[in-house]
Automatic annotation (TrEMBL):
GO terms for biological process: porphyrin-containing compound biosynthetic process. Residues 1-229 form the Radical SAM core domain. It is an enzyme of class 1 (oxidoreductase). It comes from Candidatus Scatomorpha merdipullorum. This is Coproporphyrinogen dehydrogenase HemZ. PROSITE patterns: RADICAL_SAM. The gene is hemZ. Its EC number is 1.3.98.3. Pfam families: Radical_SAM. One of its GO terms (molecular function) is coproporphyrinogen dehydrogenase activity. InterPro entries: Coproporphyrinogen-III_oxidase, Elp3/MiaA/NifB-like_rSAM, HemZ, rSAM, rSAM_horseshoe, rSAM_sf. PANTHER family: COPROPORPHYRINIGEN III OXIDASE, OXYGEN-INDEPENDENT COPROPORPHYRINOGEN-III OXIDASE-LIKE PROTEIN HEMZ.
């Protein structure tokens, strides 16, 4: 489920997301459309006799929403699908530490969220500034302290090798700082210079392929040394050096959704802007996509609701 809003837009980002300071007025309208999408999706899932096993709320930054908005989102999902979210694997992206509050964590915990992503990308204040983040490494640590105090969450932390102003030595310091926080999962990305990003448009000096390789080698060595194991891998277009993104986990904390989305064995059904659905049955796969941008999504909601009939049609029910 997609919440395509962030506090600000990072310079490397090409995901479907809107800066809240520019699009705050869209959020209530977006949520009203999303409620209709959730109802239509749940009805189609019931008719197709499918059983939800995992929910991943991503973005954007879902914790851009207020605590009451997150509560309503979770409550509507539970009512529509007829289950408690704590009965299934439930992950929430809280990627920006400046969006995490005690109240939001209490709401998510009360609805059964068991995994949360707090994504620093780097622990260097200089690099954070270079990519357009309006928080510091200290803010990341404070956010982790809030999450740990709330209790009950496995934590993922994302890092990106190859960011502007970063160096192999600086990346190793980031690794040390993140590992000291003992997250259950660490996802190591390689910078992807996608065409929709500000960084791609403005250009500028970036670490070369040899330096990025050193960063990734350092990550591999440090994560193995600290008891993590790689459990999924994928590549994107325009990645620095042609490298990859790797998800690492402490044993027993693997995220099923990350495995499902990499394989062609499980149906993935999306709700919200920018969503990509993949319906799977023996010998065939069907994909369909939601409009990418919030306003486009809002204006298209009637067609989106009707389009969920493809789920039951695919399964012949």
């Amino acid at each position: 489920l997609g919440i395509p809003f962030c506090p600000t837009r990072c310079s490397y980002c090409s995901f479907v997301s809107q800066s809240v300071e520019k699009s705050m007025a869209l959020i209530p309208r977006y949520l009203e459309a999303l409620w209709l999408d959730i109802e239509a999706t749940a009805a189609a899932v019931r008719r197709a006799q499918l059983r939800p096993v995992s929910l991943y709320i991503g973005g954007g930054t879902p914790t851009t929403l207020s605590a009451p908005e997150l509560d309503e989102l979770c409550s509507r999902l539970e009512r529509a699908f007829g289950l408690r979210l704590g009965e299934i694997e439930f992950t929430v992206e809280a990627g920006r530490p400046d969006t995490i509050t005690r109240e939001k964590l209490e709401v998510l915990k009360s609805h059964g969220a068991r995994r949360i992503s707090v994504n620093p990308q780097t622990m260097s204040d200089r690099v954070l500034e270079a990519i357009g983040r309006r928080h510091t490494a200290r803010d990341i640590i404070s956010a982790l302290e809030l999450v740990r105090a709330a209790g009950g969450f496995a934590v993922n932390m994302d890092l990106i090798a190859g960011l502007p102003q970063d160096t192999p030595e600086g990346f190793e310091r980031t690794l040390d700082a993140v590992l000291a926080l003992a997250p259950e999962n660490v996802t190591v990305h390689t910078l992807s210079m996608k065409r929709g990003s500000t960084l791609s448009a403005i250009g500028g000096a970036l670490p070369g392929a040899e330096d990025v390789a050193r960063m990734l080698d350092a990550a591999c060595a440090a994560l193995y040394k600290n008891g993590y194991e790689p459990y999924y891998l994928y590549r994107q277009k325009y990645m620095s050096g042609g490298f990859e993104n790797v998800g690492w986990t402490r044993p027993g904390f693997e995220n099923l959704y990350n495995i499902y989305i990499m394989e062609e064995l499980t149906s993935i059904i999306s709700m919200g802007a920018g969503g990509s659905s993949k319906l799977v049955a023996p010998g065939r796969i069907k994909r369909f996509f939601a409009p990418k941008y919030p306003l486009e999504y809002i204006k298209s909601i009637d067609g989106i609701q009707k389009g969920k009939e493809r789920i039951t049609e695919f399964y012949g029910l």
